[in-house]
Amino acid sequence: MLKLFFKLILLIILINKIHLLPNPQINANKYILVEPDLYILYWDHNTTDINFEIHVKTNGWISFGLSRHGDMEYSDVIVTWLKPDGSFNFTDRHILQEKKPKIDSEQNWFPLSLKQQNDYMIAIFTRKIQTNSKNNEDIDIAVGSPFVVYAWGTNFDPDISYHGPKNRGQVGINLLKTSNQINPNKTQIIEYKINDSLINGYYCQLFENKNNIFEQDFKFEALISPGNENFVHHIGLNECSVDLETEYLKKNDFPVPGPCYLLNSQINKWTEVTNFCQNSRLMWSDYNIPKIQNYTSDIFNVKSKSKYVMIYVHHYNPENRLGN
Fold this sequence. Notes:
The protein contains three helices and 18 strands. By secondary structure, it is mostly beta strands. The strands form four sheets. A six-stranded antiparallel sheet has the order 7-6-5-4-10-11, with no helix packed on it. It comes from Brachionus calyciflorus.
């Protein structure tokens, strides 16, 4: 009798623990941004609007948004928190050079609700898929796998304290799904190899657009040499415009691989090259996903005259540890 009683009590405790996880109002799509249940994203959309619901285990401020290159700099985010009187603050912001998020001149993300439930801050908000922002403070959502960025603070702080290197992240998510599928029996492998490495920062290299990959169905696989997995933050492949060939390469040598996307308004040869290669096509992220991962792009059979692609690698190593 004693053993049966013990099992019954244990079962009740486990069920109660499970029920502490709040039920979402939006549940068409789900992505756990921070395992096991620290930061959870839910979303749905129609042809014009997209709705988000985030559950974050904190009683401080929370932030969520989009990024062109996968880092906080130049990202389009919302920041929200509950005030002591029960009301909430919600603002559409953008981030410049990793400084405190600046409030947009035009608000294009709109709050629906914010509440604290058990250990979770729950925010529901909406925006247009295409904001048509005139000041470039907002990022339109395209079909494919754009970067989602997120951060949170553990304490209430209206000044938005720095979240540190751990209370943040980014990942490529296909927010707008299509029915297109790739036939694995009709594929061709094209290899782009980058040998050099940096301790910290961005590294860019230009390649020929072999077989015009943008007019094919394609996907991107990142193979990282053992011992360096923890230092590769994300990788992106951008399409370069025809102006790169007609304007830049006619007057300049083919760019040697090197540092790019420099902070604090620093300028080098890649500053001009990257201006010709801004059309993001594929992204790979190492944050909260397996080290070797395929991402299938939903940008299929796009007409393109581009002869070059640019691959950039973000080595994120704030402690300046050496890899192999």
